[in-house]
Every structure is written in C-alpha cells, then in structure tokens.
Amino acid sequence: MSVNHEDPHDDHALPHGRALRLGIGGPVGGGKTALVAALCHSLGLAHRLGVVTNDIYTTEDADFLRRAGVLDPERIVAVQTGCCPHTAIRDDIAANLDAVETLEKRFGPLDLVIIESGGDNLTATFSRGLADRQIFVLDVAGGDKVPRKGGPGVTTADLLVINKTDLASLVGADLTVMSRDARAVRHGRPVQFTSIRRDTGAREVAEWVIGLLEDRPRERHVADRTRTASETA
Question: Coiled-coil stretches, from where to where (predicted)?
Fold first, then answer.
C-alpha cells in the first residue's frame, strides 16, 4: 500500500456507529457484480444496505444493479475511477470514501455498504481505510491453476470465493485441485465455492456476511471499552 490509511483491522473493532464496509474485488468476469446482486437479494430485507461500484470509464455495474432491481436505485452509487481500478480502492480512496459518505448521509444509519472494485488482477486489495473486510472473487474459467498463483487478493482476503463451478467440467477445471491449492496459499482463511447462476442468493456467502454483521455488537462493545479506557487514562 503506497498510502498510509488508517487501518481499523488492527483490533477487529470497527469505528463506533458506522456501517460495516465490505470490499469485493477480483479479475474481470469473475462474477463480482453478480455476487453483489445476490447479497442484496439475500440481505436487503433484513438489513439497511448501500452499494458503491467502480468502473474505469462507465457506470455499467451500477446500471446493471439498478436494472436488476436489487435495491432502491438511489442506494447504488457509481464511481468512475479513470485509472487502474486498484488505485481507487487502495492508493487514492477519496472518491470511494465520498461515495460511502454520500450513502450514509442520504440513508444512514446503514448496516452494510458493499464496495465493488472494478475488474483487476490478483494483486488487487482494498485499503483498510476503505474496507473493513474483503471478499476476493475468482472463477473456474480462468483455469484451476489460478489459486496457486497466489497474489495478495487471493491470499489475504477475508473470504475467497471461487465462482462458476457449474462450468468446471466444460473448461476442464478440477475443483479438487482448486480447493487444495487455495487452502494451501490461504493458511486457514475461508474459501467458498459457488455458482451464482444456480444459487442466485449466494447463500453461503450471505451467511458469512451475516456472521460479520452479528459480530458488530461485540465489536462496538470493544470499541467503547477501549475509548473509555483511553479517556480515563
């Protein structure tokens, strides 16, 4: 990371009172936007959501989500990065922070803001000053060798999702090999296989996100206790 942004990951305590920010990154065509749509379908009735999409020169991903009717269109904000996608999520995050703040002012308080990166490579990661947790999305069409190539996105994301499992036999991808290699490079971090085409609610990924949201009261308690201790010291 070339810019030193504040990192709320250090003690897993989120800043008090604001939405959980979930970054979703990965290469072009892996299914990031489909995953965002699926999470909105699964979580939108029970949780207060906002979405920020990133595209280089267009608003295509935001337009797709609006047409799909996954959320109130005003809850979906598009960022045009005008540069390599990872720059806007990792190095110069101002435009994305502005978009998040716009949603929070317009609809706050929110429970969850999903920030979708533009399609990028295996090195793409979110600044910890922008995203509290990160999902990295691959798909089997890239070949079963991709997980073992590693890269910060694959190895350090809080959750790795390998999508389009329904295509594995058609493209000659061995899911057993992908599972073995992904788990080897991730050292215990979770990996989930899915086909969002078949599971339109991405149920297992949604359950993982719900787990994050259910942990928020505990994290806020830790933040409050830490703040109180520092104020009385």
Answer: none
